[in-house]
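Board work, copied verbatim: Chromate resistance protein
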Amino acid sequence: MKWITRERPKIDRIACPWLIKKFVDPEAEFVFVPKEQVIAQSKTLHAIPYDITGVEYTHEGERCTFDYIIKKHGLTDPAVLQLADIVRGADTARFDLAQQAAGLWAISAGLSYNFRDDHEQLAFGMIVYDALYSWAKYVQEEKHTWKND
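↓ predict structure ↓
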């Protein structure tokens, strides 16, 4: 299935494709267009619009689109649920929700600055979310123990 959203993705518009590809639709394709073209292009391309006002897959109250996808598709993986707090904190500037949220915002803003091609940016962003997921699932208890000997 095709999914469509606003161009120049940051937090939620990178996190959602990662979540969709990993847990909902491994064959998903993503399209980025100017904000004012999302709805019209979604109809033309038969694509699901996301992270834009007035569509099903979007923010609900204080919850972001990443949260909606988790709810809609009944995802229960504890690492994904932990990522949801981080994504929500970064996407809504609520850095108090997870200590990693400010860092995720900084990385996302930097990726957006460094890449002009949205699909290239998405490819690198997917690696970031793979790393966050691995941290949450497997190594979050690991501590940095370097000592200056």
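The mean pLDDT is 95.
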